[in-house]
Design goal:
alpha+beta, 12 helices, six-stranded antiparallel beta barrel, six-stranded antiparallel barrel, Pdz3 Domain, 30% strand, 26% helix, Thrombin, subunit H, globular
Length: 492
């Protein structure tokens, strides 16, 4: 063995050894360059990142954080800590110790400076229900801030500070449409009160939707495996060039490598309106849709169309009800741009001018037609996500994946049925108990446990009174045929 080693060493020429050394040096140089690139990004971007501390209003969270659509995304341990903190604050108020000489900051998140005048982009859930906001910069300077505007459906918010002559570092925003799956992604924020933590990973996916169980939410997330934790919310996700590609918003479990960020192009669109108008006015069509690819039964009945979204319901008070659109139509494009998911349809319509007709490419039972619709603004009375979820916590329909409406004459005509007493099923969540039992949009529920139903509220009351561990007997009509099913709470 020793002799063989000596022979190998003797056979290695000075030239080959030098070439190997140069090769190793080149590899190390590349590693050092990559290392320096991450250092440069952290140094470049961190001054534009802020820590957002908040004091919540009295009573905020007393009804339980579970009403927040993002609460269910938190790891169990963090949810437990939130509940303990909420209980502690409530006891302090009850004992008359609510007021302190200095405010007690009960929450913390992150934000990013987007304008030198002091405008900061963050998440709505970071500043929801706040009484006071304190913003801290990388150099330690602190400023009081006020909410400039919030957008519930995107979970974005803009807050503003008065820089008072301070020179703010404004973040450089990327074009997130050009972000590619696999590229480096770097998160900067304040997870678990650890200010200006820098983590890195990759862009795992784009266009993630249906992450939050709330169909009113805009969901078009960038997925990343960069470590994101509670406190990163509102902070930037940046590329290797130090450009912001998204606003960190959600996590799925602790240390899972699954986090979600709002694409910065959309965040910019919303924040510009929040700064100028104090709100973000959305254009909408007023249709409930499902992707055609996911509806095997309906897709097999159609010829000449392979992709699009199927209209499953048209509420009577929306803009679509004033157009020639019909349930069963397949929308394939908006102003010539193809759509295949509900979120893509929402994205294409959202930025259109309210009140100005747009042209939809529609497939209707073997024919391709053009339909003009005049988008309207989302109604001001549209309930917020939090209010909607609070209502849903009482409305047992949502637990089983049902969305219901009172059956009006107009709705009955749209679905080609006779007006009858009952509630119309307008949407059935995929994978839900209702779908497993065969309920579909267009069905009419007439009784619960032998008692007639005439409104969604009455349905909720009857379901609430039922023993759902044993199950509730649902009498319903589908295509004129009366059927029964048992909906049971099986703990899912």
């Amino acid at each position: 063995m020793f002799l063989s080693l000596v022979m190998v060493l003797m056979s290695s020429t000075p030239a080959s050894m030098a070439a190997e050394a140069r090769k190793n040096s080149t590899v190390l140089d590349l590693a050092r360059q990559l290392n320096q690139a991450f250092i440069d990004v952290a140094e470049q971007v961190s001054p534009s990142v802020v820590v957002v501390q908040v004091v919540h209003k009295p009573g905020h969270g007393d009804q339980g954080n579970e009403e927040n659509p993002f609460y269910e995304m938190l790891p169990p341990e963090f949810r437990r800590r939130l509940e303990e903190e909420r209980d502690k604050q409530r006891k302090e108020r009850e004992n008359g110790r609510k007021f302190h000489r200095r405010p007690v900051y009960s929450g913390e998140g992150s934000g990013v400076v987007i304008r030198k005048e002091g405008y900061i982009l963050t998440n709505r859930h970071v500043v929801d229900g706040v009484e006071k906001i304190l913003v801290r910069l990388k150099d330690g300077q602190e400023f009081d801030a006020e909410v400039r505007g919030v957008d519930v459906q995107s979970d974005l918010a803009v807050i503003k500070i008065d820089p008072k002559g301070a020179s703010l570092t404004v973040a450089k925003l990327a074009d997130s449409d050009k972000t590619r799956v696999g590229e480096f992604a770097i998160a900067i924020g304040a997870p678990f009160l650890l200010d200006y933590s820098v983590t890195f990973g990759h862009v795992s996916a784009k266009g993630r939707s249906d992450i939050i169980v709330d169909r009113l939410m805009d969901q078009d997330f960038i997925q990343t495996d960069a470590s994101i934790n509670p406190g990163n919310s509102g902070g930037p996700l940046v590329n290797i060039d130090g450009e912001v590609i998204g606003i960190n918003t959600l996590i799925r479990g602790m240390s899972t490598g699954i986090g979600f960020a709002i694409p910065i192009n959309f965040a910019r669109e919303v924040s510009d309106k929040l700064i100028s108008d104090g709100k973000f006015a959305r254009a909408y069509l007023g249709v409930a849709v499902n992707p055609l690819k996911g509806d095997n039964d309906y897709r097999d009945l159609l010829t000449g169309v392979k992709d699009g979204v199927v209209i499953t319901a048209i509420p009577p008070d929306g803009p679509a009800a004033k157009s020639d659109l019909k349930p069963g139509d397949v929308i394939t494009a908006v102003e010539g741009k193809s759509v295949s998911t509900a979120q893509q349809l929402r994205n294409e319509v959202r930025g259109k001018k309210i009140g100005t007709p747009i042209t939809l490419d529609v497939h209707r039972f073997g024919k391709n037609i053009k339909v003009k619709v005049k988008p309207e603004a989302w109604p001001d009375e549209m309930p917020s996500v939090l209010a909607r979820r609070q209502s849903e916590s009482e409305d047992k329909a949502s637990k089983f994946g049902l969305e219901l409406q009172a059956l009006t004459k107009d709705l009955a005509e749209q679905y080609g049925m006779e007006k009858t007493e009952g509630v119309l099923v307008t949407e059935v969540e995929r994978g839900s108990a209702a779908e497993r039992k065969g309920l579909k949009p267009g069905d009419v529920i007439t009784e619960v446990n032998g008692k007639p139903v005439s409104s969604p509220k009455q349905f909720a009351q009857l379901m609430k009174a039922a023993d759902l561990k044993k199950g509730a007997v649902i009498l319903y009509k589908t295509k004129g045929t009366s059927k029964i099913e048992v909906l049971r709470d099986d703990g899912e």
